[in-house]
TrEMBL record:
It is a multi-pass membrane protein. The keyword Transmembrane helix applies. One of its GO terms (cellular component) is plasma membrane. Keywords: Cell membrane, Membrane, Transmembrane, Transmembrane helix. The keyword Transmembrane applies. InterPro entries: Diverse_Substrate_Transporter, EamA_dom, EmrE-like. This is EamA family transporter. Residues 9-145, 159-293 form the EamA domain. It holds the Pfam family EamA. The lineage of its organism: Bacteria, Pseudomonadati, Bacteroidota, Flavobacteriia, Flavobacteriales.
Amino acid sequence: MKSKQSFIYGILLGILGIVLFSSKAVMVKLAYQYRIDALSMLLLRMLFAFPFYIIIAFSYKSENKASLKRKDYLWLVFFGFVGYYMASYFDFVGLTYIKASLERIILFVYPTIVLLFNKLFLKKAINKLQKFAIFITYIGIVITFSSEVTVSGNNTYLGGLFVLLSAITYASYLVGSGWLIPKFGVMRFTAYAMLVSCICVFVHYGLFSRVAILNYPWQVYALGLAIAVFATVIPSFLVSMSIKLINSSNFAIVAGIGPISTIILAVIFLDENLSLLQILGTLVVIFGILLISKSKKG
């Protein structure tokens, strides 16, 4: 009975975490209405998130410390740079060109990229079901994407490319960092990697931006704080707790609500809408990812 309650609790935590993560794209698009650029928006997100991850890092600083080597920290810096800084930057730039709902659909293909990276770099075989799932997923992307190009024009290609780069860099982080996470622990690794990302954003802004960060309306800062707290810090804990309670395979299925929740939020807050063809493409993508999670279970 207790295990069943834990499983239900884990499912609910996972759903809440995914919905909160999905709200990020919608809040970023709302902020862009005030003519803030992608780098400045990313800076605000990291500035507000930075204190939370400092506290987390100090709370877990003594955990497994003796077993860690210098190269482990160097790899952590590298994966923090690739998986959180580069992926976030590409995502925020992509959102300047495409709708929030389309961004979430493209990002959702990262499990297929993980499979491809595992094949290329770790020599892990891709079975027939996984190959079929990858094929199905990209058919769904083509359906959704091509339909959007006819409406929004060539900027959709550019935005889609940046979001795809975000998915690729995040997938490379997942493939490469898997062996590091048990060494540091989930909470500590996440906090350290996010701090690396924050520092990278601060340096990027300091070197290349000529925009005064204090010249925006108060709504931009409120959205930056909301993105940091409700679409970054809180869901990162919720997702970790959910995976612990229901395992990663079941969580992958729960994550299927991500694109759907983004579409619903985008319709409510951004007046975005998808055609029937785009909705069909979205469902095809979700079906493909669910097939991949099913094949991983087996």
